[in-house]
Structures are given as structure tokens and as C-alpha cells.
Specification:
Elements (H helix, E strand, L loop, with lengths): L24 E5 L3 H13 L3 E5 L2 H6 L8 E5 L8 H10 L6 E5 L4 H9 L4 E4 L4 H32 L4 H13 L3 H8 L3 H14 L5 H10 L2 H6 L5
Parallel strand pairs: 1-2, 1-3, 3-4, 4-5
């Protein structure tokens, strides 16, 4: 990593252009100004946008920034709340932003704690530019995969919300029990023709072409939605 570590705090270094909301942002949190500057230069050289903060509290004050794509590079030991505390706090709030720890004072218990909590990597200063950028790229790829999955989940929850109560009953019978039309008709006390009609509506509204696709769509739904059928979660 380029640059010498020195104490000091400064205002957050913001991206030069925030117009492209889809561009990954690497959020750097370190109480040493020189480290923040060196990391920001490195991140820029790799084609990503850096945003730097001098404390975890500054990140929490700008928490809306965490909604966008990207990752966090956190120091562990800082004045006030630690990087580990920030990781825990974000997890409690359901913010699944990939985290890379970069510290000069790491140990095995600390590493285990961070990795168990979902950190992408735990690196010790000094670290090579290549190793850090590899971790950043892995974190951004992980974030992109999570966001793509979240889009699929949201889409399927919305589609489920268009089904009638009866259509949801039939959907559940098909995907969880593998029941045939005549079996469902017997269980629900309706005609097999009615079951076929409802089943066709399910396939159309869920926008799938096969039972296999329907099952895969069902499996993307959050457990609470599958258990209760409620689409508000």
C-alpha cells in the first residue's frame, strides 16, 4: 500500500462524480489521514470510486450511502467504536455490505470473529496493492451477486402477491408436496378442471414455463413468505 501512516482526521473524501448510482463505491474507514489518502489513490487507480471516513460514527451518519453497490474497508482499532463494532451494527440493521478489514494490530481471535461475522478478508498492514485489490474485487463481486439475488427475490415476492388465496393454496400443493391435479382437487373439494385453471393462472402470474421453474421461483422466497404466504416482509 502506498503512502505513510500518520495520525489525523479530515472530512470524508467523496467521489468526483456521483451521477452514476450503479458504480461501485469503496468506503474506506481509517482514523489516519495518510492511510485514507493512499487507499483512495489505490482504489481510484483500479477504476473504483473511493469514499473515506475517519471514524465509524461518520459512516453511521452517512448510512444512506451504504444502499449503493460496493464494499467497506475498515480499520479495527479506531477512536470510539471499532471496525468490528461497525460490522456488527450494520449486520443488526440488515445492511449486508461486504467488509474487508485492514489493520496493523490484528490477532487470531479478532480474525476469527470478523470472518465468522461475514468479512470477506482480514488483512494486516502493510499489505501489497495487489492483495488488497483482489480482496476489493472479490467483495464487489459478492455485493453484485447479493444484489442480483435480491432483485430476483423481490420480483418473485411481487408476483406471488398477485395470486389469489386459492391460487396460493394450489401453488403450495404443487411445489411442496408434488401433488397432481386430481389429488389437489380431491383435497380441496373442487373439480379437476378448476384446479387446472388455477394452476395455469399460477404459471402465468409467476411468469414461469415449467414446474421446475416454478419450484426454483418458490425456493427464492424468504422462509417467512413460504411459511405464511404473506408478501410483506
Amino acid at each position: 500500500m502506498r503512502g505513510n501512516d500518520s495520525a489525523g482526521k479530515s472530512a470524508p473524501l467523496l467521489p468526483q462524480d456521483n451521477n452514476n448510482a450503479a458504480e461501485p463505491i469503496v468506503i474506506i474507514v481509517d482514523d489516519h489521514a495518510a492511510v485514507r489518502e493512499a487507499l483512495s489513490e489505490l482504489i481510484l487507480s483500479a477504476g473504483f470510486q473511493p469514499v473515506s471516513f475517519a471514524s465509524t460514527q461518520e459512516v453511521l451518519d452517512a448510512v444512506d450511502m451504504l444502499d449503493g453497490p460496493g464494499c467497506l474497508i475498515l480499520d479495527v482499532h479506531m477512536p470510539g467504536a471499532s471496525g468490528l463494532h461497525l460490522q456488527h451494527h450494520l449486520a443488526e440493521r440488515g445492511i449486508a455490505k461486504p467488509v474487508i478489514f485492514l489493520t496493523g494490530h490484528g490477532d487470531i481471535p479478532m480474525t476469527v470473529q470478523a470472518m465468522k461475522a461475514g468479512a470477506v478478508d482480514f488483512l494486516t498492514k502493510p499489505v501489497s496493492d495487489q492483495k488488497l485489490l483482489e480482496a476489493v474485487r472479490a467483495a464487489i463481486a459478492l455485493d453484485a451477486a447479493r444484489r442480483a439475488e435480491a432483485i430476483v427475490v423481490k420480483r418473485n415476492v411481487e408476483r406471488l402477491g398477485t395470486l389469489t388465496h386459492r391460487e396460493r393454496e394450489i401453488l403450495r400443493e404443487v411445489v411442496t408436496r408434488g401433488r397432481l391435479n386430481k389429488q389437489i382437487a380431491f383435497d380441496l373439494g373442487i373439480s379437476e378442471v378448476t384446479v387446472k385453471l388455477h394452476r395455469a393462472n399460477v404459471m402465468r402470474k409467476m411468469e414461469v414455463r415449467s414446474i421446475g421453474e416454478l419450484i426454483r421461483a418458490w425456493e427464492t422466497l424468504p422462509p417467512t413468505v413460504r411459511e405464511t404466504g404473506e408478501t410483506a416482509f
